[in-house]
Amino acid sequence: METPKRATVYFDAAIHRALRLKAAASDQSISDMVNQAMKRTLAEDAEDLAAFGARKREPNLDFEQFVKALKRRGKL
After folding, report:
1. pLDDT digits (tens, 9 = 90+) for 18-70
2. Rounded distance between C-alpha atoms, residue 55 and residue 43, angstroms
3. pLDDT at 75
4. pTM across the whole model
5. How far is the first Cα of the chain from the last one, in angstroms, to the nearest whole number?
6. Are the C-beta atoms of residues 23 and 11 closer than 8 Å to each other?
7. Do 47 and 55 form a contact (C-beta atoms < 8 A)?
8. DSSP code of 75?
9. Distance of alpha carbon 7 from alpha carbon 67, whole angstroms
10. Three-state SS string across 3-72, please?
11. Is residue 6 pLDDT above 80, yes or no?
């Protein structure tokens, strides 16, 4: 396991209080909870990037033309 790195993070007072209460209730440290939340966020980002990569060869749609087509077809 890598050596943990230290960082200073500033939270709004209400967020910090909620974190402290949740940490105490779940028997975890705030640091562990923040690490877990960041891992989930980065995993979601990786999924999004993979989806963008899979769709990069799809043709681009012009928004204005798309909306006009919806209107022509009676969808708007």
Report:
1. 999 999 999 999 999 999 999 999 999 999 999 999 998 998 889 999 999 99
2. 19
3. 93
4. 0.70
5. 56
6. no
7. no
8. -
9. 47
10. CCCCCCCCCCHHHHHHHHHHHHHHCCCHHHHHHHHHHHHHHHHHHHHHHHHHHCCCCCCCHHHHHHHHHH
11. yes
- Using 50, 70 and 90 to split pLDDT, how confident is the model at 8? very high
Q: Quote the Cα angle for 35-38-39, to 5°.
A: 85
Closest CA to 24 of 14, 13, 33: 33
pLDDT at position 72 is: 95
- Gap between the Cα atoms of 35 and 42, Å rounded: 10
Structure tokens at 10: 């500033």
The radius of gyration of the chain's CA atoms, rounded to the nearest angstrom, is 22
